[in-house]
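User: Here's a protein and a ligand (pyridoxal-5'-phosphate). What would the complex look like?
Assistant: Let me lay out the input and then the predicted complex.
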Amino acid sequence: MKHTPFGAERIARTSAELIGSTPLLELTRTGSGARLLLKLENFNPTGSCKVRMAREMILAAEREGKLKPGGRIVEPTSGNTGLGLALAAIERGYRFTAVVDGHATRDKLRAMQAMGAELVFVEGQGDKPSTIERRRIAGEIARTTGAFWPDQHHNPNNNRGYAGLAAELLRDLETDVDYLVGAVGTGGTLCGTVAELRRLGSRVTSIGVEPVGSIIFGGPPGPYRQTGAGAPGGFEVGPNVDHSLIDEGLTVTDIDAFTAARVVARRTGLLLGGTAGAAIHVALRRLALVEPGSTVVVLACDAGEKYLDTVFDDAWLRERHLLNEPAHQRLHRLFMAFDDSRRLVSQPLRAAVG
Ligand SMILES: Cc1ncc(COP(=O)(O)O)c(C=O)c1O
């Protein structure tokens, strides 16, 4: 057989074909062999896991006859769902309108516009989320124009969009996922992944994470700066947050969430968003307590490049009293403790061999 320097061609023909098969990165491991893995959903087109479910909701709407060729889509979104819908709209030939507010990061809005989305701004809340008002306006646009409103909080195809993510986890690991940690907003990412993992036979324990001040797990309402996850006071949490699929629900402060994202950036060179930081904060603490050999996976929902003006901007953080040196030190000490625990295990082995 003639040998050539060329391989089999692997070329995507649409951006949608690039969705999924995101990599796993081991962030750290303990001397007892427990490891913390990051499922890097920032490697998806649009830099977020939400593109998976955006596509699923649009394909299902087509199947169900809710979207006609050349039709219009409208959705209230803090950005990542909007980016996913903008991509699906390009691919499938629709017009897309995102109902947004000042809580979304500027770069997400600009990226949506760059992809041809139309933005409708909800005013009057400063940089607090206007989740309730955004829904009202989106509903009005859908009613008056006949646009299709996927409604990610109530659409079961949001959760179903993560079946592929669950299959990838089991495909890429030799063991079960013992703990899955993910930020919760609509609930789709965590609950959709857990539902499919369990259907496939996994015995995963799931840990949902929301910002302190978000009300999904029953805490008191208050302000928070993590975008994408959580629900503000007064918001009616939809059925995609399926509490039967969430074994523990925990809250994380903005300081701890952003600190984790910043420390991970310095350790790995990867920029992850604030909600990934919140999940990593929880997972690092849990790693110290889990059984030897456990696999802890964090769903890193989006890319940190979207937060260069916020999470990764010292001045922005300082103005909001979110730049906190003791929190950085605590996290460094935790990483060092894991490093030390590995050294303690490997030293006697090396002595025995050498
Ligand atoms: C950055 C980020 N993290 C977490 C979430 C929460 O994901 P879900 O709505 O699937 O619960 C979102 C949702 O938009 C997000 O954009």
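Summary: The longest strand covers residues 205-211.
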